[in-house]
Amino acid sequence: MTRLLIPVALLALAGCSPAADPDALASVAVVDATCRPTLNGRDVTGCYVTLTASRDDRLVSVAAPLAATAQVHEMKIEDGMMKMAELKDGLALPAGEAVSLQPGGDHIMLMGLTQPLTAGQKVPLAFTFEHAQPVQVRARVAQPPVAGAGAEHAGH
Ligand SMILES: [Cu+2]
Description:
The protein is 8% helix and 46% strand. By secondary structure, it is mainly β. It has a single domain (22-137), classed as PCu(A)C copper chaperone (Immunoglobulin-like, Sandwich), CATH 2.60.40.
């Protein structure tokens, strides 16, 4: 509950926020979108991105025309094993904070890809937020910069 109350308190303090549609001013910066090249014969891959919201917001869903399904996944420990699971309620984006999806952590999972992804390609991704306008980017296909990754998709 505390998390929900804080923004309201801030708005009250600011005093000058118009009550009419604050969502019109909400935006999310989407940078460094990268999708990992697909492994031989696989039609799944992980994508990574950094999201910075102008106000408290939430990444609700991701769509990718090249994939049958795109989900936002988190990594969690279950029975001593790192497993990934869909974030069914989306991903919280605190105002002004750069939230990085990266190997070993939260990521975007593309499933049912209609074609293999090779380095140098571009993959359109569409991000939908609770408040901000949707954002479309073209992610580059490349090995993500963080080393030691890949294990999170071993389960597929
Ligand atoms: Cu995943």
